[in-house]
Design a protein that fits this description.
alpha/beta
């Protein structure tokens, strides 16, 4: 059985705003095994990115604050590390590819400089060694004439090539975990497909584990082995990817899948939508956060927030109702 690389327990993160405290992440727990790809899905504002930024110590404080939880990586709690300690882990063993390739690179430094810096900082390479490795990395992610491109600035690259540079930078120190925060959102679908295939190939070559954050369930289907669905700062369903698509249990997951066009359905089958709006988290929900939008809602849903319970092999769901029968879960 693969060893656990990352074990996050009871993570809670808040943000102080002029209008009040936003409870962005409300007790999230998950694990990541060696070589595994975990998809984290949900609509904007559900806490996907904040969860991973909290684990990496990248939450701006103030206004953000981690108020509870543990995040064990290789036996060490990342949340208890000093900023200096986590700086040596981040980038070397845990890397992140951010959402927008247009703004993630420093516009006044060459791409070569930005690739070489982590190699010299974390691996202890000389400038010449780092330059050779940087060119090798650019070639690995499919950028032609990599040695020549090291002298270029970010504005001389297209959006897709900039995202490839970001992936090369994240992989430069051969991390054990790569966290990808919606890395294909700003790209057209052709480039999206190329980036996803690139990440899959590099995952198989390097053997790293991946956390892929997205709102696109279509991407997750071909990339991840396991999926965690988030809503209102909670994980509300967690399952192996095939089981989630064939046997979704939570009303929110059913709604998400119902809004996707599928090749295996009748042409005249209408797509569904989820009525209502996502919760505004100025108060930590004491009831099910999906209750206001749920067609299966019952009295208990307004009184008590369900915890994740096992409903199948490695399949857990936080819901008081059995959506197959419409009756309360026993």
């Amino acid at each position: 059985m693969p060893d656990l690389l990352l074990d996050v327990k009871g993570l809670e993160t808040q943000f102080k705003t002029p209008d009040g405290i936003i409870h962005a992440v409300n007790g999230v727990s998950f694990v990541l095994k060696e070589g595994e790809t975990l998809g984290v899905v949900g609509e904007s504002g559900c806490g996907k990115s904040v969860t991973m930024l909290s684990v990496l110590g990248l939450i701006p404080s103030p206004p953000g604050k981690i108020i509870a939880g543990e995040a064990f990586f290789m036996g060490q709690d990342l949340l208890k590390m000093s900023s200096e300690e986590i700086r040596h882990v981040r980038g070397a063993q845990l890397s992140m590819v951010f959402q927008d390739p247009m703004t993630s690179l420093n516009p006044v430094l060459t791409v070569g400089h930005q690739l070489e810096e982590p190699l010299m900082l974390h691996v202890g390479m000389s400038r010449n060694q780092a330059s050779e490795r940087a060119a090798e990395l650019l070639g690995m992610v499919g950028i032609p004439k990599p040695k020549d491109r090291l002298k270029d600035y970010p504005h001389q690259f297209s959006g897709g090539m900039r995202q490839r540079v970001m992936i090369a930078m994240a992989l430069s120190c051969s991390p054990q975990v790569l966290i990808a925060d919606e890395p294909t959102t700003a790209l057209d679908v052709t480039i999206q497909a190329q980036i996803i295939e690139l990440v899959k190939r590099l995952r198989d070559e390097i053997g790293m584990a991946i956390v892929w954050i997205t709102h696109d369930l279509g991407i997750v289907a071909g990339l991840a082995q396991r999926v965690a669905v988030m809503y209102g700062g909670f994980i509300i369903e967690e399952s192996p990817v095939a089981d989630l698509y064939t046997n979704p249990e939570h009303p929110y997951t059913i709604g998400l899948l119902g809004s996707l066009p599928r090749l295996d359905q009748k042409i005249n089958k209408k797509l569904t939508s989820i009525e209502g709006l996502p919760p505004v988290l100025y108060q930590k929900p004491h009831f099910c956060p999906f209750a206001p939008r749920c067609k299966w809602v019952m009295e208990r849903c307004w009184k008590e927030n369900p915890t994740l319970e096992t409903v199948g092999p490695e399949h857990r769901v936080a819901c008081w109702v059995d959506t197959k029968t419409g009756r309360p879960r026993s």
